[in-house]
Amino acid sequence: MNVPLLDLVAQYCAIKDEVMPALLGVIESQQFIMGPAIQQLEAEVARLSHARHGIGCASGTDALLLPLKALGLQPRDEVITTPFTFFATAGTIHNAGGTPVFVDIEPESFNIDPAAVERAITPRTRAILPVHLYGQMAAMERLRASAEPRGIPIIEDACQAIGARRRLDGQWRMAGELGWVTGYSFFPSKNLGAWGDGGMMVTSDDAVADRLRKLRLHGGAKQYHHEEVGTNSRLDTLQAAVLVAKLPHLAGWSARRQEHAAYYTNALAGVPQVKPPVVDRANEHIFHQYTLRVERRDELQAHLKAKGIGHAIYYPLPLHLQPCFAYLGYTAGRLPVAEQAAREVISLPIYPELTTAQLDCVVDAIRGFYR
């Protein structure tokens, strides 16, 4: 049995009777740019995130880039972030005019290490950019304890974590609730995916919300009047319509991902060469990815490929070792936890529509490899 890493056709078949009329409504209205579906989605995602404002934009990359541009970064200004993430996290810091400062990760959660962040803060630190990797929130309370007394804003990269939450002082706090600004991605493979590119920023800061709305529209709130140089980063109305139709399914889809993760973890418990993902007891993980640490990772990858089992390596080369960041002076061994993770991780199919037979096929392939 072939098991794809992701099957978006299966999702489409389940919801097409809801999504297609929403698309047809946009087509019939001909309101393709900043149509009413944009405002509806912004309000609903802000509500989900316990934030006052949602600001749609063209991509998850722009959802990080625009808040960084709002800081007015200069070349010596530093933004502390993780090396173990998708490239956009650090690429946007560079493109906004700042300098990425990479610190190591926690070995179990794969998220940025708050103690390492504390040690890396200097008078040039302008922001901290944690990533809620694979769908599990970083330790925001510890990051805030370092940032808030110094007046350093936290920009949450929640591109993989819409709907994730963390229990703090007995209360659930959402991804998007605890940072200055949070960026989401609606790339098709995400838990809430569009039918193309799309992103959103959420914030409870009224002033920065107004600024971000201008930055996504060439720097002006009024057509042909520009208070600053912004860019064209509108969320497409067609994509917003798709997302509005999909959003009511998000909680159910996340619950299915959690069920699949528990199934994998129980089924692989007797394989000592495999370490399932560790969920921080304070977190509700929404499993954008189900990522193992394994021995002989590259051999296992070849085995799964031969068996027709979808898989992926997120991420094979940490950002501090990427050629484009060589100018920063990091060398191999500088951030050992992230570098070890890059050698050991492999992600398995986790999408909601997986059947038990498909899950068993994945498990049998892994157990057979190590037997």
Structure write-up:
- With 371 residues, the protein is α/β, with parallel strands linked by helices.
- It folds into two domains: 8-248, Aspartate Aminotransferase, domain 2; 249-370, Alpha-Beta Complex (Aspartate Aminotransferase, domain 1).
- The chain is 38% helix and 14% strand.
- It has helices at 8-29, 36-48, 60-70, 88-95, 114-120, 140-147, 206-215, 237-246, 250-267, 297-307, 336-344, 356-370, and strands spanning 53-57, 78-81, 99-102, 125-129, 155-157, 165-168, 171-174, 181-185, 199-203, 274-275, 283-284, 290-294, 345-348.
- The strands form four sheets. It has a four-stranded mixed sheet with strand order 1-9-8-5, sandwiched between helices.
- Strand 2, helix 4 and strand 3 (99-102) form a beta-alpha-beta unit.
- Helix 2 (36-48) crosses helix 8, helix 3 (60-70) packs parallel to helix 4 and helix 5 (114-120) packs parallel to helix 6.
- The longest helix is centred in the N-terminal third of the chain and has 22 residues, at 8-29.
- The radius of gyration is 21 Å and the shape is globular.
- The mean pLDDT is 97.
